[in-house]
Amino acid sequence: MTDLHDARVFVTRRIPEAGLRKVTESCAAEVWPEPLPPGREILLDKIRGCQGVLTLLTDRVDAEFMDVAGPQLRVVSNFAVGYNNIDVVEATRRGIRVGNTPGVLTDATADMALALLIAAARRIVEAQDFVRAGHWKTWEPLGHIGQDLTGATLGIVGMGRIGLSMARRCQGGWGMRILYHDQYASETAERELGARQVDFDTLLAESDFVSVHTDLNPTTQGMFNRAAFAKMKPTAVFVNSARGPLHVQRDLYEALRDGVIFAAGLDVTDPEPILLDDPLLTLPNCVIAPHIASATVSSRNGMAEIAADNLLAGLSGQPLRCWVNRPE
Ligand code: GLV
User: Fold this and answer.
1) Closest C-alpha among 87, 81, 85, 84 to residue 66
2) What is the pTM of this model?
3) Which of 77, 109, 298, 322 to probe ligand 1 with, by most ligand atoms within 8 A of CB?
């Protein structure tokens, strides 16, 4: 690889040593040391004159970012599989390579979706609150009744790597029938799991559990709105471990409050972090985690290694390991 010791790089947050060390040992890197992201002004100041930037999903990489960085910017390496924070079209137009970190977080994210599904269906967090508040007086034949998983129908929106992994868990573990909605047919899901590709309305109407695994883009933003929730079963559980803006949060709140659907499990919200006065936080039938689906040792180490490799490859003009805007 080319000698990169003079290459200026900004890393917008500390990432696991598995990747950070590679970056700091190979180039002239500055690493933002604080637990909270740099504010916009600081970020723009830090990236000025950089050849590479290692970003997080909380950093907006738009035309302004690229203008301020300057024409020598060669690579933006995102420490995430999703890259909705990056204007990829603009980066491509300017010849800036964009990298992401798919694969290594697939199982961890599917595990999280499943955990949220079960927690919401079986009311686990609400039950724990009940215990801690000292309300547990006796075994209740009519108390804390949730939804069954066995033999239920799972609707996957976005049958990519993570959607498939979630479907495998639910089919293998509980014999669920799998429906999916995606612009592409998944030959693997159909052959291996007997999954059926359906339109969005059919998926909403027939699924007991709806789990979202699609990317966020202008066509998917807000797809889970009042009209969509109204088409779901009143016993249905909605799970979002992808991106918050895929659902309309006020509409989700009203659907949960009014019993239009049974419960929800969210690893993502809109905005993030969720505002403390968001009414969703008052509902017992909504389980919320702070965007932690990839937070396991091997996933985060794997993400760090890929992000570092992408950055270094981009700096030296080599193909990125995971290259979002790879030329055709
Ligand atoms: C996390 O949300 C990611 O996209 O990796």
Assistant:
1) 87
2) 0.97
3) 109
